[in-house]
Amino acid sequence: MRGIHFGIEAGEYVGVIGASGSGKSTLLRLLNRLEDPDKGTIHYGDDDMAELPVIEMRHRIGLVMQKPVVFPGSVIDNVLMHDLIAGRKGDENWGCKWLEFVRLPRDLMCRDAAALSVGQQARVQLARTLSLEPEVLLLDECTANLDEKNAGEILSDLEGLFQSENRTIIHVSHQQTKLRRCRRLIYIEDGLIAASGTPTAILDDPGNPARKVLATQSPSSS
Q: What is the band of 212 on the pLDDT scale with cuts at 50, 70, 90?
C-alpha cells in the first residue's frame, strides 16, 4: 500500500476489490494491526491506532481470514478461545448463540474442531470473531468455502445485525452478488485506490477497470 487516503464511517458496509497481489489483504492486516504502516498513520476515531493496545484493537476490529484458523480442542473451546487465553471460563450459551448464527448446530460444540470440514471450520472462525462483538468486522473472502445458500444467508444476517447496531463491515470479495450488498466499493490497483463509488457506479460501468478484474477471477462465495 502506498499513498492512500480514505475514510470509512461507522455503520458502513464497504467492499474491496482488486487483483491478486494488489494490496487487499494487506489493507485488512493493517486495519487489524497484524502489520503496521512504514509511513503514515491509521486513525480509529480520533486516535492514532499505533498508540492503542494491539489486543484491544484486535477485539474492536475483528479479522476473519479466507483460510480458517482453528485451535486444538473442541468447537466451543475455539469459539470461546479469547476467554480461555485470558484464563476465564467462557459462557457456553454465548458461544452457542454464535454457532447457531453461522448455521452450525449446537450439538457440534463438543466435536474436535480439527475434524470439521473446511467450510465448518470457516464458520467456527467467524463465530469466534463475532463472539467478541467487534465494532468493525473485516472479511477476507472468508465465505469462499461455503455453499452459496449458507454464504448468502450468513452475509444477510451479518448486514442486518451490524446495520442495526451502527457497526462496520469491510468485505474483500470478487463475487458481484456479494459486492452488490455493499454501500460502497473501493478498487485497489498496485497498492493504490484506483476507484471508489457505489456498486452500481463501479460494477455497471463498462469502462471501469474493476469489471475486468472481476471477469478474470473465478466465481465463488467469497
A: confident
128-132 CB contacts, 8 Å cutoff, 24+ apart: 128/78, 128/79, 128/80, 128/81, 128/82, 128/98, 129/62, 129/63, 129/64, 130/62, 130/98, 130/101, 130/102, 131/79, 131/80, 131/82, 131/94, 131/95, 131/98, 132/59, 132/62, 132/82
pLDDT digits (tens, 9 = 90+) for 20-47: 888 898 999 999 999 998 889 999 999 9
Assess whether pLDDT exceeds 90 at residue 155.
Answer: yes
- Helix-helix angle 148-164:118-130, to 10 degrees: 0
185: exposed, middle or buried (C-beta count within 10 Å: 0-12, 13-18, 19+)? buried
Q: What's the whole-model pTM score?
A: 0.91
- Three-state SS at 58: helix
Q: Hey, what domains does the chain have and what are their CATH numbers? A: 13-68+135-216 (3.40.50.300)
Query: Do residues 85 and 56 touch, judged by C-beta distance below 8 A?
Result: no
